[in-house]
Amino acid sequence: MDSKIGRRGFLQKTGVAAVGLSVLPGTAFASQPAQSAPRAPGDKLRIVGVGVGGRGFAVLKALESEEIVALCDVDFRYAKNCFDYFPKAKKYWDWRKMFDEMGDQFDAVMVATADHTHAIIAATAITMGKHVYVEKPLTHTVYESRLLTKLAEKHQVATQMGNQGASEEGVSLVKEWIQNGEIGEVTRVEAFTDRPIWPQGLNTPKQGQWVPDYLNWDLFVGPAKMRPFNEIYTPWNFRGWWDYGTGALGDMACHILHPVFKGLNLGYPTKVQGSSTLLLTESAPVAQKVKMTFPKRPKAGKVDMPEVDVHWYDGGLQPLKPENWPAGKDMNVQGGGVLFYGTKDILHVGCYGREPWLLSGRKPNAPKTERRISLSHEMDWVRACKEMPANRVKPASDFYEAGPFNEMVVMGVLAVRLQSLNKELHWDGENMRFTNINDDETIRTVIEDGFEIKDGHPTFDKTWTEPVKAQDFAAELIKHKYRNGWNLPEMPQ
Asked: Where in this chain does the record put each Gfo/Idh/MocA-like oxidoreductase N-terminal domain (predicted)?
């Protein structure tokens, strides 16, 4: 780590906003057009990228047949490969400055930042009439997912979440098989991932570090609370820290649970509960289990949709294998798997909806009712961006579906973080609130585990937070209070 630091680095280290890079007036986008003009099929879509280092670079390469006009990243070293690949694109630290200066020069935005900044970037872009592609998870919170769903509907832009399996054959087959009655009624689903492959369950660093010159720490923190920089937080490791990521569940459930949400026509859960290895206040646990109960839904195709329990496992945990599971066969397909327990058969499918098969060995012959996508997940979004709203065919993970689905995903995070209430939590999805957290209930979480070996014996001297009102704690998890200078648009009615 470079020990030198300039004026910008000093400001970032101390949490003071860097002039010209961090805070723009709240009216900065008021002069921008309400809606981008539709692009003719032969015209290239003008795209800007926000968060272009790792996953963002891959998405932009999948969009390179279009015109990449600007790139934005808080980490210029991490983004260097992307900057070099698109040398004609303008480069920015701050997406707000990019939007302000180039509002009439682009049509669409690709967002692949840390989870906690997805919503504010996408929401701002939508209110400017820009089409948006957002990497998974769609948002950090339930409220943010609901907001993006409603904003996209209001402004009639083309949207897509980056769960690429949604555009593949497997997800369509799962829905068609289930709704053709191939496995009967489904009342239990078990799903897992082999993630995390980044550090989780970590104590918060006691000391900060000098901010390197290639990183704008203030802009990385964005709407979250300011804290001293440490290299343990970014770039890749943000997923394991609650302020910036959603852990293994938020990262991989968007790929693994999508066939479940789509195939079973799920909406809001009514009951949730979670458990995990040691739950820390700052870092996601090493392993988690979550159960979400969804109410009875209307009949779909040939099959009834009764109440169903969806179980989630991560951190190396897997469901127990069914009695007729083939000996030696791995349930993990490219990062995880799902078991649908039907009254007639059991369906297994891998991550991204890949390699679906029935444990009975039968070969389903269900009618093909789902649209097949011949383009890539990314280019199908481009196709939708160039269509008029009245005639637009929605891409596979348009926010109309991805928003409610992502609420399911981050609901699992809520269940884990509220586990010390020691009860099943009842959820009012329409109003985004828990109905059985009482006024007198409080929550404490572990700040650090205090593990030591004393006289040859393992000891834990845990440091706990002060008790906080459980209702307030839950409300903050559902809808974050943003740091000063960062604000979401209002929720449409």
From this structure: 47-162
